[in-house]
Write a structure and sequence with these properties.
Shape of chain C: globular
Order of helices and strands of chain B: HHEEEHEHEHEHHHEHHHHHH
Chains: A alpha/beta, B alpha/beta, C alpha+beta
Distance between the termini of chain B: 41 Å
Strand order of the largest sheet of chain B: 1-2-3-4-5-6-7
Oligomer: heterotrimer
CATH architecture of one domain in chain B: Alpha-Beta Complex
Radius of gyration of chain C: 14 Å
CATH superfamily of one domain in chain B: 2-enoyl-CoA Hydratase, Chain A, domain 1
CATH topology of one domain in chain B: 2-enoyl-CoA Hydratase, Chain A, domain 1
Structural class of chain C: alpha+beta
Strand content of chain C: 25-35%
Largest sheet of chain B: 7 strands, mixed
Number of strands of chain B: 7
Structural class of chain B: alpha/beta
Distance between the termini of chain C: 39 Å
Radius of gyration of chain B: 19 Å
Helix content of chain C: 25-40%
Largest sheet of chain C: 5 strands, mixed
């Protein structure tokens, strides 16, 4: 009876040892398990109800482990709580269909967003929360610690050292949370080698390594073919450079992944140079290695670029530019999503990107009625960093202009991050960007969410750029004025047609709304000939042959 | 539109059909037949609720290279993928007919020096073939164009130009193959069944249409140049095509026949030899063929700039010449 | 299924016609349009005909055209547009480019095509 009173403080450790003991026979040498034994390994180390992290994001995927997880016996393993960055592969949802997993906490889903919404509706999947990347990573260290993590790397040695290299991305943050809380970490790798190129994750944090039958999948998500950039996007890029980048002297920033920012990147060496802005803007980036950044980098614009992840085809180029990128002693890039997100939140003066819808109050969302697409990292960068205490020219100027500053904190000077949304008033198929009510509300109803998923809230938003003009919405002193500023740049959408000419004139006088004419931009010059590179081939030429575009972009 | 001098420097790919037509002939000499002002658009598309264009996606006209009248047909890929319907097809046919009439006139008026003034037909292809919305008329147009090309044979040269985004596929792939001379850029593609159709019919394992590198090394200008399916490879500039056309116009007419790839018993035999060779080599990829024809490092050819490529490329030896 | 056809007529202050007798601009690609402008004695006004597969935006077309004609003081011109889903910004941009082309000097045109 005495023994019952002895408190045990290492149950997690004992549990881990017990689980590992059950699969001892599968380990060949060091920590190596054969690909064919993977399902048995998972059945041995995972228990019903476990929190399981399946690595993958909008770029690399632990696709082999995802497939194997779908093959475990649902009678043995069920009710798993998946905690993972993305729902991107079919297998990510198949585990729910098969009854292996039950609950999900995640950040972003792309092509599977429609199916995810169906699963939620049909009760096949219990949705915890939709997060931003950084927010989800943070919860790995609080209430969502993974019991088992299934990660992915380029190389491993037999002892379990991992080389994640160019696509390090989320691996460190997942492995650290799991390994140090007595969890189990399994890595699929493209190749088991005698000596890894570089140790990105030390062997002591890894329990098993498996050489997958095929290299892991990587999506070239950040490649934009300059051939597809339109004249309108060139016009809006010119407005952004002159009316925002130049106006505030924005030195550190993050770009979204659409064609608007691709156009801006390709105008830096042409229009940016012409405005004399080189050295005054765009020196520091938290950004994936966008191929469309090559001309600006080659022209000497960029001092420093930290990457969330890699980008297919940019490996050699990045390696050859170690003054700009973060390169290991082995000569290859080290990306890291958690650190880059932190930099994007705290160290960047501006976030600029496209969106799907903006409501009459200035809230924006990429949600549609029947797809739970989630957030990814944009909200972490697209919000004012309230904990920021260092200053910069752009940040201070934006704070000085902030119309509610005095109302909120009295006479103190404080900066504000520039959060810029860029979109044409109508998208393809004449879908209006400006709407009375966001589709996010419909999604909330359809998927029974606690609240409509908003990418960027109106109180964080500082600028809206459309082809009509720029609305400097942060300058407004109340919501009424802000709504008028939004109407003024909303063009011929229902919202825009409610604009009052006199009201718009008054806003232009106050500098809250600026048209291309107000900015001194010659609209007739806004065409593709302004771009530093007009197609992928010209990007290759700019890179001196170092950029190797993925096959789907090679049109020659 | 840009001025003629600026057009010469413009990318062929980025230019529209009209700009190409103006730029392919001597400065200031182009006159359009059935221009947009004539508003001769498709009678079929409005019934189907499909957008129309005043020129029905095909620009036709005549200009000069030196003293020679050049009858130009220029297809617009941005309008319904350059698919050929009734009106556009009729414009193509009529343009070749006019070239043949000009041939008769020139011969009559200048019996001793008509070679200097010999008309030519230049067709810039950017099409997937028949416009499905008006398929019967479109198919008929293909047949009639073929007919005209046969009529022109031995009288005036018919020259193909392919350097556009859409390329030249479907029925028009046959038409292009039946002309005397083919000029391409590396951006041009020539084939019969389009990549997407192959993938859809036989599967991704057979042909992955999303793998553009594969698509281009199977149908693109560089491959066609190595295989001798195209006679000349030029850079992606309107001026580069124009300069090559100037050169082709210097070729004595009795030598033009030697540039054909099909159209005689001997040429058929040459093609059959190639088929035999292909069976023997059993290529898994066009790069295997490039290697067979003497390119030691076929991998490197794809990313080479135009100038580098022209310096280092080895082509299949023609049997007939 | 048939195409949507719209007709408008506007009169600007101090109207001025185009230099060329007629002028054509643009290609009917997806999301794009072509514009034909013809000089015509219309008592100073501009007549517009638009043919498009798009329905439900007739009033927007009217507003875009009116704004363009008033801001450019165009008159005595007959404009025909074939459209395929161009957005208002593309329409405005193409109209401006078409007008610039239509106002080139005839001599310049003859010499340079």
């Amino acid at each position: 009876m005495e023994q019952e009173n002895v408190k045990v403080w290492d149950t997690l450790k004992r549990d881990k040892e017990e689980r590992i003991g059950q699969v001892k026979n599968l380990v060949k040498e060091g920590k190596v398990v054969a690909a064919k034994d993977t399902v048995a390994l998972l059945e041995g180390v995972i228990k019903p109800g476990d929190k399981v992290n399946l690595e993958g994001n909008n770029q690399k995927q632990a696709d082999f482990l995802a497939d194997c997880l779908c093959k475990v016996d649902p009678k043995k393993i069920y009710d798993l709580h998946m905690v993972q960055s993305v729902i991107a592969l079919k297998s990510h949802l198949d585990v729910f269909e098969k009854g292996i997993a039950k609950k999900l906490d995640y950040s972003f889903s792309g092509t599977q967003a429609g199916r995810l919404a169906e699963f939620v509706k049909d009760g096949k999947l219990e949705l915890g929360s939709i997060h931003t990347y950084l927010e989800l990573f943070a919860r790995y260290y609080a209430d969502l610690v993974p019991r088992v993590a299934l990660v992915v790397a380029f190389e491993a040695d037999k002892e379990g050292n991992l080389y994640t290299g160019f696509n390090t991305e989320d691996t460190p943050v997942i492995v650290e949370a799991t390994a140090f809380k007595q969890g189990i970490v399994i890595a699929q790798v493209n190749k088991i080698v005698d000596k890894v190129t570089r140790v990105d994750i030390p062997a002591g944090w890894i329990d098993f390594v498996i050489e997958s039958p095929k290299p892991f999948y990587i999506e070239p998500l950040f490649t934009r073919d300059p051939a597809l950039i339109t004249d309108t996007q060139v016009l809006m890029a010119m407005m952004a450079i002159k009316g925002v980048y130049g106006e505030y002297g924005v030195q550190s920033l993050n770009h979204g992944l659409g064609f608007f920012t691709a156009a801006i990147e390709l105008l830096l060496p042409t229009y940016g140079e012409e405005l004399g802005l080189k050295g005054k803007i765009c020196s520091y980036f938290a950004l994936n290695p966008h191929p469309t950044m090559i001309p600006a980098i080659e022209s000497g614009w960029v001092k420093n670029m930290h990457c969330f992840g890699g980008e297919l085809g940019m490996e050699e180029y990045v390696s050859a530019r170690s003054d700009v990128f973060f390169i290991g002693p082995d000569g290859t890039l080290r990306s890291n999503r958690a650190y880059s997100q932190a930099a994007g939140h705290y160290a960047m003066d501006m976030f600029i990107g496209g969106t799907l819808q903006i409501d009459k109050y200035g809230n924006s969302s990429t949600a549609t009625a029947n797809r739970i697409s989630g957030f990814g990292g944009a909200p972490n960068m697209g919000c004012d960093a309230k904990g920021r205490r260092h200053s910069s020219e752009a940040w201070l100027k934006c704070g000085k202009e902030y119309g509610l500053q005095e109302e909120l904190i009295g006479n103190l000077p404080r900066g504000k991050k520039l959060v810029v949304q860029m979109q044409e008033t109508f998208k393809e198929k004449l879908e209006p960007t400006f709407v009375e009510e966001l589709d996010a509300w419909k999604l909330q109803k359809n998927a029974n969410l606690d609240m409509p998923p908003i990418m960027i809230y109106s109180d964080d938003l500082t600028h809206i750029i459309t082809e009509v003009g720029i609305a400097y919405v942060h300058k407004c002193t109340d919501m009424k004025e802000k709504m008028a500023a939004i109407r003024a740049v909303a063009g011929y959408t229902e919202i825009g047609m409610q604009a009052d000419e006199k009201e718009t004139e008054a806003l232009r006088k106050k500098g809250i709304v600026k048209t291309p004419e107000d900015l001194g931009i010659d609209v007739s010059r806004a065409n593709r000939s302004m771009l530093a590179a007009k197609n992928i081939k010209e990007l290759v030429e700019w890179s001196g042959g170092l950029y190797n575009p993925p096959a789907k972009f090679v049109n020659w | 539109m840009l001025k003629w001098d600026e057009l010469q420097k413009a990318n062929f790919t980025d230019s529209n059909a009209r700009a190409r037509a103006y730029g392919l002939v001597d400065k200031g000499t182009f006159t359009e037949f059935v221009s947009p002002k004539d508003k001769l658009s498709s009678p079929h598309l409005p019934v189907l609720g499909e957008a129309i264009e005043f020129d029905d996606g095909i620009v036709t006209g005549v200009g000069l290279i030196g003293k020679r009248p050049i009858f130009v047909v220029s297809q617009e890929g941005k309008f319904i993928g350059g698919a050929v319907g009734e009106v556009g097809g009729a414009k193509m046919v009529k343009t070749i007919k006019l070239a043949l009439r000009a041939y008769e006139d020139v011969k009559k008026e200048h019996p001793d020096s008509y070679e200097d003034r010999l008309p030519a037909v230049v067709i810039s292809f950017e099409t997937g073939g028949v416009r499905l919305h008006e398929a019967n008329a479109g198919l008929l147009a293909h047949a009639e164009v073929m007919d005209q090309i046969q009529d022109a044979r031995g009288k005036i040269p018919v020259i193909t130009i392919i350097g556009s985004k859409v390329g030249c596929f479907g029925g028009m792939g046959f038409v292009a193959a039946a002309t005397d001379v083919v000029i391409m850029s590396e951006n041009g593609r020539l084939g019969l069944t389009g990549p997407e159709v192959i993938e859809q019919e036989i599967g991704k394992d057979e042909f992955d249409a999303g793998d553009k590198a594969l698509v281009f090394r199977t149908t693109g200008g560089k491959h066609k140049y190595i295989m001798q399916d195209c006679n000349f490879l030029v850079a992606d500039k309107i001026g580069a095509f124009k300069t090559q056309l100037d050169e082709v116009m210097k070729i004595p007419f009795n030598e033009i026949e030697g540039y054909r790839r099909i159209g005689s018993l001997k040429l058929v035999e040459e093609q059959l030899e190639l088929v035999k060779k292909a069976v023997e080599i059993a290529p898994k990829d066009s790069k295997d063929m490039w290697k067979y024809f003497g390119n030691e490092n076929p991998e490197s050819l794809t990313n080479m700039s135009y100038d580098e490529f022209m310096k280092s490329v080895k082509r299949r030896e023609r049997i007939c010449k | 299924m048939a195409l949507n056809e719209m007709k408008f007529e506007f009169k600007a202050e101090n109207p001025k016609s185009i230099n060329k007798g007629w002028s054509h601009f643009g290609v009917v690609g997806s999301g794009d349009m072509e514009i034909l402008m013809e000089k015509m004695d219309l008592n100073g006004s501009v007549q517009v005909k638009i043919v498009t597969p798009v329905t439900g935006f007739d009033n927007v077309w009217g507003m875009v055209m009116e704004k363009f004609i008033r801001s450019s003081n165009l008159g005595d011109v007959y404009i025909e547009i074939n459209d395929n889903n161009a957005t208002p910004v593309v329409v405005s941009m193409r109209l401006r480019q078409a007008l610039a082309d239509a106002n080139k000097q005839e001599e310049e045109v003859d010499e340079d095509a």
